[in-house]
Amino acid sequence: MDNIDGRGDEVREAPTCDEALADDLGWGLGMIFRAYVKAAHAAVADLPGGPRGYQVLSAAAHGMVGSQLALAQHLGVDRTVMTYLLDDLETAKLIERRPDPADRRARRIVATRRGAELLTILNDRLRAAEAYVLTPLDQEARESFRAQIRLLATQIEALDPPDSPCDLAQEVEAELPTPGRAARSVRSH
Fold first, then answer.
1. Cα gap 104→98, rounded to integer Å
2. Which of 143, 154, 157, 168 suits a disulfide with 162, CB 3.0-4.6 Å?
3. 160, 154 in Cβ contact below 8 A?
């Protein structure tokens, strides 16, 4: 546009979107979160149930699983969907359902040897995904970043605890996508 005196205004280059948002905490957290979710999902994509399958396998391998129902409640997964997920993991010979000695009606979920070995591989892949996201940071900065995130997460949880990690993920519309058949896709309720 021309000024009244006939001279043109100086044209300043507009900042890029990244530059304009560089100081915005929400934007930064969102970018880091999306990058991590994408890398982590790729790390477990070939596992039945994807991220949910990983959670079940990890809980089973660490002996943290009571009954099938308790696991479904803990992970925030509908019990019918959990049945399909466990069927898929069992078919892949990664977990077994064993009778619970304390309650014959209940089944305990236990990782098989193959499942425990795969979990080791998946954990390595997840560490690589984390390293990928943190690539711009040197080792000291990575450790500091982790410590600060841990501090913030524990303080925020104490001030405003979510009902469950699954509810929190749904609040921010951050449910990890899972591979699988359309008729039996794994989703939280």
1. 10
2. 168
3. no
Q: So where are the chain's domains?
A: 22-184
Q: Which residue matches tokens 């001030």?
A: 159
Fold of the domain spanning 22-184: Arc Repressor Mutant, subunit A (1.10.10)
Is the pTM higher than 0.85? The answer reads no
Looking at the chain, list the stretches that DSSP marks H as alpha helix, in order from N- to C-terminal side: 17-21, 25-44, 50-61, 68-75, 79-91, 113-133, 139-159, 165-171
pLDDT tens digits, one per residue of 13-71: 666 766 767 788 898 999 999 999 999 999 999 999 999 999 999 999 988 777 888 88
> Which positions ≥6 away from 131 have C-beta within 8 Å?
none
